[in-house]
Amino acid sequence: MTTFVALGDSITLGIGDPVRLAPPPGRRKGPRAWRGWAVLLSETLPDPALHIVAGNGALMADLERDQLPAALQLRPEVASVVIGINDTLRPNFDPDRLAETSAHVIGALRAAGADVLTMRLPDPGRMLHLPDVLARPLAKRAHLLNDVIDQMAERFGTLTYDAAGDPFVYDPPMWAVDRLHPSERGHRLIARRFHDLLAAAGHPVGPPPGAEPVEEPPTRAEQFAWMATKGTVWVARRSTDLVPCLLSMAFEEWRAGRALPEPEHEAEIAAERETATEAAPQQSAAAGDGSGAPADSAPVSATFTSPELREAG
Fold first, then answer.
1. CB under 8 Å to 111, separation ≥6 — which residues?
2. Which of these, 203, 187, 153, lies nearest to 38 by C-alpha position?
3. How remote is the C-alpha of 214 from its chain's centroid?
4. CB-based burial, 133-154: b 16+ in 10 Å, e otherwise
5. Tell me: the pLDDT tens digits for 7-39?
6. Is the pLDDT score of 240 beyond 60?
7. Of the four, 119, 207, 215, 292, which is 20 to 30 A from 141 by CA?
8. Buried/exposed code over 225-253 (b: 16+ C-beta within 10 A; e: otherwise)
9. Three-state secondary-structure class, residue 140
10. Distance of CA 234 to the CA centre of its chain
11. Sheet of 2-8: strands edge to edge?
């Protein structure tokens, strides 16, 4: 049996990748449930036992306090720590504290014998299409966060997927309607990249997950319902704390005459995209999976003891 414990936030919970479950007796359609990259990846492992201990909206401090003890009790062979976007979107962002917490979490998992998967995260300002005055300070935070992830890779030998430099990551079909969570296609991309890393490290794995979406995408009405309920609440909350913080950062940088860094790998992404599209099949938007969460699914913290899906909400 391969025990895989997935720590992190809503991306690891599978938000953005809804699947339709079997309908109950007397109903034509079944409810929606979240799946996500961790479930897809676990299905490629021999005799997998998947435990998702991630939490919706989790910060690195939440992972250290709540998720790490649960993960260590499960004694995983493989663990994933995919987190950080929520930290960059908070006014009290502290890269030194993130480095300290990351070292504790990843060091403990490695000491327990787990191979640890991590991910360098894409620039959230680009994903959210923020105005430049807000996007550039946020790009600086993403750069600092990825510096921490690089430090952990060098110190602990993590298997790290560089999503910030992946030429396909910024394609719109990879993202759900809220622009913060991967779509089914995006979750499949993450699972495939981690599968490649595990295979290269000598882990026994089966065939990789397919790249193309197979699920019925949420309807436009479901997308609208998601943005009208969950999305607007998030925007209102962040507008009262993050936006003033980013404006203050931008003003301080301007006053000091210091240029903020460009989003990571900007030139490399353009060059690699051209090369990658010539070498591999074009990632297509035709499947219509660049959509958000269904109206009847709720983003809740969940623990799976096997790859079997459970109903959301």
1. none
2. 187
3. 20
4. ebbbbbbbbbbbbbebbeebbe
5. 999 999 998 898 888 888 888 877 778 899 999
6. no
7. 292
8. bbbeebbeeeeeebeeebeebbeebbeee
9. helix
10. 17
11. 48-52, 2-8, 78-82, 115-120, 159-162
- What is the pLDDT at residue 223? 57
Reported as a single tens digit per residue, the pLDDT across 150-175 is 999 999 999 999 999 998 998 989 98
- Show the CA angle centred on residue 305, arms to residues 300 and 307, nearest 5°: 85
Per the prediction, the chain carries an average pLDDT of 79
Question: Distance (Å, rounded) from C-alpha 268 to C-alpha 133?
Answer: 23
DSSP 32-45: EEE--HHHHHHTTS
Helix pair 132-156, 232-256: axis angle to 10 deg? 90
Exposed/middle/buried for 303, CB within 10 Å: 0-12, 13-18, 19+?
middle
Nearest Cα to 247, choosing from 146, 108, 131? 131
Q: How far apart are CA 160 and CA 198, in angstroms?
A: 10
DSSP 228: I
Tokens found for residue 268: 């490399």
Domain ranges of the chain: 2-279
Residue 33 CB contacts under 8 Å (≥ 6 apart), including other chains: 18, 19, 21, 297, 309, 310, 311, 312
